[in-house]
C-alpha cells in the first residue's frame, strides 16, 4: 500500500511539475512578445497581447488603459529604446492568474527627452480564452 501511494505521489508530482514548466514557458514567451511589441510600438501586436481590461500604472503615477497606452506606444509619444530584465519571476496565486515580479532597466524616449530608469515592478497576467494576456502593471523607480 505504501509503495502504491508513493508511486501515485511521484506520478502526480512529476505531472504537476511538467504542467508548471509548460505554463511558465508560455508566460515567458508571452512576456517576451509583450516587451518586443512595446519596443517596436506595433499596434497589432500590442492589441493582441494586452487584455481589454489593461491598467498600466507608470512609475511616475500616470495611469493608462489599453487604448491610451497602445496609442502612446504606436504613435511614438512614448518609445522604449531598451528593456532589460535584471530579474523576472512568476507565481500562480490562483488558476488563470499569474503574478510577475522583478526589476528591469529601461531607456525611454518622450517629448521631454530620454531617460534611463531601473524599476521594481508587479505585472499581472490573466488567462483569457486559453491565451495569457497582460492585465496590469505597477512599478516604482529604484535609486
Tell me about this structure.
This protein has helices at about 1-40, 45-50, 65-75, and strands spanning about 50-55, 65, 80-95, 95-110, 115-130, 130-140. It is of the alpha+beta class and about 140 residues long. The protein has a single domain, classed as Nuclear Transport Factor 2, Chain: A (Roll). Strands 2-1-6-5-4-3 form a six-stranded mixed beta sheet. Strand 4 and strand 5 form a beta hairpin. The radius of gyration is 18 Å and the shape is globular.
Judged by helices, strands and strand pairing, the structural class is alpha+beta
Number of helical stretches of at least 4 residues:
3
Total beta strands: 6
Oligomer: single chain
What count of structural domains? 1
CATH-derived architecture: Roll
Radius of gyration: 18 Å
Portion of residues within helices? 25-40%
Strand proportion, as a percent range, falls in over 45%
Q: In what order do the strands lie side by side in the largest sheet? A: 2-1-6-5-4-3
Question: What's the CATH first level?
Answer: Alpha Beta
Judging from the principal axes of the Cα atoms, what is the shape? globular
Distance N terminus to C terminus?
58 Å
The helix/strand order is HHEEHEEEE
- Give a short account of the largest sheet: 6 strands, mixed
